[in-house]
Amino acid sequence: MYMNIMIASQYDQLYETKLEFIFIYKFIFQLQSREENMQFKGIIAATTIIAAALVSGCASINKAPASLDAEAKSFTTNTSHAQVYLYRNETLGAALSMPVTVNGKLAGSTGPHSFFKFNLPEGKHTFTSQGNESTLEIDTKNNKNYYIWQEVKMGVLSGGSKLQLVDEATGQAGVKECSMIQSELN
Fold it and tell me: How far apart are CA 82 and CA 155, in angstroms?
């Protein structure tokens, strides 16, 4: 049953990605005159087909067991460490896995609607996404939760991201939309 839900979710994300390409394809043809349309029709059609083929798969992530996901979403604090939730609650860029590092160590990669939960000692910690494209440093305290939103930014040829520290209400709502993924750090 769980596998069927996971597969259905991936098909939904794939369908949304293909709808984005169809929208872009139609938009381009509306902007051009009929003469230009005929000249570029073959080039744009080929480009659209190639792009759709490249992103037809969803980003592969290492999902955590459902019991850990449910426990993380209780948002219970811990007196011995700080808990940092890093989440990506968007479908935009569904085919992109976005690598995340914590203090220079690879934690793993996010996919659409996924989150990490890091148990970290009190002090300063540096988070990066997409190499050093986006960097965020936070000073954590034990017995407190922190929420980092990994916003997807689409470019002309590839996607990017921006890490943003958000308030508790926004962070918890975003995490609840996502599935927990296992970190290579914890």
Answer: 34
Q: Is 32 exposed, middle or buried (0-12, 13-18, 19+ CB in 10 A)?
A: middle
- ∠ at Cα 12 (8, 16), nearest 5°? 170
* Sequence ranges of the domains in the chain: 2-54, 66-180
Q: What angle do CA 7, 72, 59 make, to 5 degrees?
A: 35
Separation of alpha carbons 174 and 171, rounded Å: 5
Q: Which two tokens stand for residue 10?
A: 């991936």
Which pLDDT score, from 0 to 100, does residue 18 have?
53
pLDDT of residue 87: 96
Can you give the pLDDT at residue 7? Answer: 44
What is the mean pLDDT of the segment spanning 50-69? Answer: 65
Cite the DSSP H helix spans in the chain.
2-31, 34-54, 66-72, 168-176
Take residue 62 and report the two structure tokens written for it. Answer: 């290492």
Residues linked to residue 102 through DSSP beta bridges, in sequence order = 105, 127
Contacts of 151 (CB under 8 A, 6+ apart): 90, 161, 162, 163, 164
State phi, psi for 101 to the nearest 5 degrees.
-120, 150
Q: Domain spanning 66-180 has what CATH number?
A: 2.60.40
Tell me how far apart the alpha carbons of residues 81 and 77 are, in angstroms, rounded to a whole number. 8
Tokens standing for residue 117 = 């939960």
Mean pLDDT score across all residues of the chain: 78
